Amino acid sequence: MTTTELGQALRRWRDRVAPQTAGLPAGGQRRAAGLRREELALLAGISVDYVTRLEQGRAANPSGQVVEALARALRLSGDERAYLFRLAGLVPPGPETVPGYLTPSVQRLLDRLVDTPVGVSDAAMTLLMANPMYAALMGDQSGLRGFERNGVWRNFMGAPTRVRHTPEERRDFEVGMVAELRATYGRYPADRQLRRLVAELKAGSERFGELWDAGVVGRLEGSRKTIEHPHVGLLTLDCDLLRVEGNDLHILVYSAEPGTEEAEKLALLSVLGTQSLVG
User: Which burial class, exposed, middle or buried, applies to 241 when counting CB atoms under 10 A from its CB (0-12, 13-18, 19+)?
Assistant: First the structure.
């Protein structure tokens, strides 16, 4: 397979994805109904230049992570995803690798939750996608790369967060994250990226190392979370963690009880989006 075939496939699939189905505005002058290159780049978390070079056959050998991100952004079926991997000269990830594929049925579910902050992570807690409401609530994470997109790495390596924990909540959350990650590690012991993540966390965080060496194993549960938003202030929301067992995905959903101040703030966030209110 040649990079020209890869480029043609990417362009063909890009043309069939309507921007509104991907949570993007459909306004403005558009030559085609599908995604623009810059929109595909945004959804996949790669540069516009790289998308252009892939489509024009000027870039070869994209990584598995890039191919997986493109498959998610383009909403490919299982067969199409496998075909894309082969066009890129790669073998589709096998059962020994942490899955990162969003099935069409999961994608349809997410499409219906446009007014609800929703993020989808893999079993290692690496963020795969987030809808606009999630970005409005938690901050735009589309520019994060590599382990910066991993929730365990961000929490133990001191990355900025809008979540506010009490000391006890923080301890319980850390134990839950390490317990979940160890369980995932046990299911995918041959996943090289997962082994690298654990090694980097042990080297960079004494607290993570202590918990990892303690051998905690379990599941991270949903909870109530307090979020400090720069424009609407504090929100205490229900944070439910839904599991897609067949694909080993985590769907994180934030919600508020109707009629409460938190519900009003979430409604305001749906209008504000990620825009800055600084004059």
Answer: middle
- pTM for the whole structure: 0.84
Task: Count the residues in the chain.
Answer: 279
Asked if residue 124 lies in contact with residue 194, where contact means CB atoms within 8 angstroms, the answer is yes
In one-letter notation, the amino acid at residue 162 is R
267-273, long-range: CB within 8 Å, 24+ apart, which pairs?
268/232, 269/133, 269/136, 269/137, 269/229, 269/232, 270/115, 270/133, 270/136, 272/136, 272/231, 272/232, 273/132, 273/135, 273/136
Could you read off the pLDDT of 79-118 as tens digits, one per residue? Answer: 999 999 999 999 888 889 999 988 888 888 888 888 899 9
* Location of structure tokens 């079926």: 77
Helices (H), 24-95: 37-44, 48-55, 64-73, 78-87
The letter for the amino acid at 207 is R
Q: Provide the sign of the torsion angle of the four alpha carbons 74, 78, 82, 87, taken in this order.
A: negative
- How many whole angstroms separate alpha carbon 239 and alpha carbon 255? 7
Residue 93 contacts by C-beta under 8 Å, 6 or more apart in sequence? 64, 68, 85, 99, 100
